[in-house]
Design brief:
single chain, 106 residues, mainly beta, globular
């Protein structure tokens, strides 16, 4: 599974995605998405408003439900977060970070 997070002007945006192999930075496109075919399920795009800003766009759910996917029971899947930082201080225009954990699908 993979997720991406975008921080921009007091907000935190992210995508949740699952995959059958651990993603690498090479799987992340210049737009902060995962390469087509490198994942089996996308949970969605979410936005967290920081610094007391009002809710904007879709907030993250309190839990994520495992999707029904066409893989055998006991298969290891990967849940990942792709962080995308836009216009951060210090002259960073656009930067991505990737975090992954494994889960066993049953």
């Amino acid at each position: 599974m993979r997720t991406s997070i975008i921080a921009n002007l007091g907000t935190l945006r992210f995508r949740c995605i699952s995959s059958t192999s651990p993603p690498t930075t090479a799987d992340v496109t210049t737009g902060g998405e995962l390469v087509n075919g490198s994942f089996i399920y996308k949970f969605g795009d979410y936005l967290i408003a920081n610094f007391g800003l009002p809710p904007m766009e879709t907030p993250p759910p309190s839990t994520l439900t495992a999707p029904t996917v066409d893989v055998p029971d006991g298969v290891t899947l990967y849940f990942s977060v792709i962080e995308t930082y836009m216009d951060c201080p210090g002259g960073i225009h656009l930067e991505y970070g990737l975090e992954t954990t494994s889960v066993v699908y049953e």
